[in-house]
Design a protein that fits this description.
Blueprint: H1 8-25, E1 29-45, E2 48-66, E3 69-75, H2 80-95, H3 128-145, E4 149-168, E5 173-191, E6 194-197, E7 200-204, H4 213-226, E8 236-242, H5 244-257, H6 260-264, E9 283-287, E10 310-314, E11 317-318, H7 325-331, E12 345-349, H8 358-365, E13 368-375, E14 385-396, E15 399-412, H9 413-418, E16 420-423, E17 433-434, E18 438-446
Helix pairs in contact: 1-2, 3-4
Length: 448
């Protein structure tokens, strides 16, 4: 692998050295992750290269157990002496921490064993000039879209590569390489008091699957132009259509509330909700760690526990939480293979048809608010209360009437998730959550 200074075998030997040093220090158990990353990011603004960033990093993290006590330490120095010192430092920390009955490695039978390489690594090595040219093409296309595109916050290209090995004292040792490449553009439309910016992006593991710079730049420009002459709107209760990238955020809110840390701390509105209705009855949420080139694909989680394809929500009913070994033990349940978070999540509706593109979803909205940007973090996961600043469009007769701004949308996640009326087929495939636009039955929109 030309991008990396170390091989997988190098990492496995370093991990084994760290485990050996931890055992010699007196550890009853230990887990090690060794990783290395390398990448290039280039930002172009008004046709000129504004920023070039080469990043390289490497780290060895070790968690050491002294019975039910845990200590953690890390180093970026891979010399034998530094690894020995790091393992002993982690053990010294463990000796002085409080005992925790839930601490410890996963049960050996849950570990992934000889998991195959998931083939998530697609190296791409553009020169600074090649990356700048791609960014320039996107920005040029934005400016060429309309004379009202007068400025730009720039266009960016990023090529990132990393690989890791995870190993523990119960015989697990495996790892693989991944890549993540992206292209984005942020044009500014208008002048004076009516200036608006928007952006668009494309992010893939395989650079050959990125959107074309010209198409991306044009679309980003059209989004900025569509915001011009935005108005305020009257306060009221309206149906709200969330654009697909924002709709993915609603799935993220559900995941946060259904995650072990939130649940055992009782800081979630989904405590004790397994087997209960949490979404509209026509909805299913699938977790699939095996999606080819998926941003959330992984044969095992951050503890080496094998991942599994499963229905998290079936017919609107919550069938599974997102648990690590530790949070599972706190709740008296087995891990779900989600140490480190959820894997690829796919929301589907039994009502969605192939023709349910954005224009069709606007027709389903009929009269209400179509949201394309959310601001702030006004979500209370204990109560489910939801309040965010928003920007979007007023829709009348199933068609966009005019842009609106300076509004707040509010509701409760319980009602919002159960009140999802439709999910579009307009999926924006970027990131680890896949959904089309989401139409929520009713929310409070605070305007003028």
């Amino acid at each position: 692998m030309g991008h990396f200074a170390y091989t997988k075998q190098d990492f496995q030997e370093l991990a084994e050295l760290a485990l050996r040093e931890a055992r010699q220090a007196g550890a009853s158990d230990a887990a090690v992750e060794v990783s290395e990353g390398q990448g290039l990011s280039v930002n172009v603004r008004l046709g000129r290269v504004e920023q070039v960033e080469h990043n390289t990093d490497k780290v060895l993290d070790i968690s050491v157990y002294a019975g039910k006590r845990r200590g953690h330490a890390s180093t970026s120095d891979f010399s034998a002496q530094a690894i020995r010192s790091t393992a002993r430092a982690a053990f010294d920390i463990a000796r002085y921490t409080a005992e925790d009955d839930c601490a410890g490695l996963p049960e050996p039978e849950l570990l992934a064993g000889a998991a195959r390489d998931p083939r998530l690594y697609h190296p791409w090595d553009p020169s600074v000039e090649q990356a700048a040219e791609l960014a320039r093409r996107a920005e040029d296309a934005a400016f060429a879209t309309d004379r009202r595109i007068r400025n730009s916050e720039g266009a960016s290209v990023s090529a990132q590569h990393m690989h890791f090995v995870l190993a523990n004292s119960r015989g697990f040792s495996n790892g693989y390489a991944t890549s993540r490449h992206s292209l984005s553009c942020v044009p500014i439309a208008g002048r004076g008091d009516d200036m608006q910016r928007d952006y668009w992006w494309s992010s893939r593991r395989d650079a050959s699957q990125l959107a074309s710079p010209e198409a991306l730049g044009r679309y980003a420009a059209e989004r900025s132009l569509s915001r011009l002459k935005a108005r305020k709107m009257a306060t009221g209760q309206y149906p709200v259509l969330f654009e697909a990238p924002l709709a993915a955020g609603l799935i993220g809110s559900l995941v946060h509330a259904a995650s072990g840390g939130s649940l055992y701390r009782k800081s979630s509105f989904l405590v004790d909700h397994l087997g209960k209705q949490v979404m509209a009855p026509h909805l299913d949420l699938l977790e699939d760690p095996r999606v080819a080139d998926g941003m959330g694909s992984a044969p095992f989680d951050d503890e080496g526990v094998r991942t599994q394809r499963r229905r998290v929500v079936r017919g609107g009913v919550l069938e599974g939480y997102f648990l690590s070994t530790y949070s599972g033990r706190k709740l008296g349940m087995p891990t779900t293979g989600n140490a480190g978070g959820a894997h690829n999540l796919i929301l589907s509706s039994r009502l969605t048809r192939a023709g349910d593109d954005l224009p069709q979803m606007l027709r389903k909205l009929e009269r209400g608010l179509f949201v394309i940007e959310l601001m702030g973090h006004g979500i209370n996961y204990v109560t489910g209360d939801y309040s965010r600043g928003a920007m979007g469009f007023w829709v009348e007769g199933g068609r966009i009437s005019h842009p609106v701004h300076e509004i707040t949308i509010a509701g409760n996640l319980r009602d919002m998730l159960r009140g999802i009326r439709a999910v579009g087929a307009d999926v924006h495939a970027s990131g680890s959550r896949r959904t089309g636009s989401i139409l929520v039955e009713s929310m409070t929109v605070a305007g003028s």
